[in-house]
Amino acid sequence: SISYEYDPNDYLKTREYLLKHRDPGFKKSQHDDLFSMETGLMGYKGRVHIAFSSCISSIIESISADTDKQEVYRRVCHSIDCGIHGGYKIFPINYVSYDRAFDSDMYSDRYSSEEAVKVTAYIEGQLDKIDVPDITVQERNFMRTYMYTMYANPLRNKLIAAGYC
């Protein structure tokens, strides 16, 4: 698993989400795709954490030879997903975003008020980068919720992995 504190493409993904919301037929241009790749490679990620899960050989060896092929794929994929999600490093932005996205204070003991202010300022700054004309207040709220949810997802996936692996 490779966990980034910040996703350098967060505002680009949010921009695309808004444009698809406005026009379900929207497709990114090749230029947009290349810019996203460059931003993802070169952009600021904050703290980066790398984790390795255990080898899946024992999982594969435990599957009977007569098991349906689709079931084999399902078990192997599940094992890989659990290893990836279980290895995520959860940063304060993930906890704050979860609480903001789901109107909760469930994880408020995992971050300080200063960290919460910093996350809010970061999210608002990223939203300010979105170069789409005539963004309404509702669309800004829509994008904010999307971005908080995006940053909450690693925590959600780690929790799911912990419960199902």
Gist?
With 165 residues, this protein is mainly alpha-helical.
Q: Could you please describe the fold and organization of this structure?
A:
By secondary structure, this protein is mainly α. Helices cover 62% and strands 4% of the residues. It is built from seven helices and two strands, in the order βααβααααα. Strands 1-2 form a two-stranded antiparallel ribbon. Helix 1 packs across helix 7. The mean pLDDT is 95.
List keywords for this structure.
mainly alpha; two-stranded antiparallel ribbon; globular; 165 residues
Compute the number of helices: 7
Sheet with most strands: strand arrangement: 1-2
Distance between the ends: 16 Å
Shape designation: globular
Question: Layout of helices and strands, plus pairs?
Answer:
Blueprint (H helix, E strand, L loop, with lengths): L1 E3 L5 H13 L7 H13 L5 E3 L6 H5 L7 H18 L5 H10 L11 H16 L8 H28 L1
Antiparallel strand pairs: 1-2
Helix pairs in contact: 1-7, 4-7, 5-7
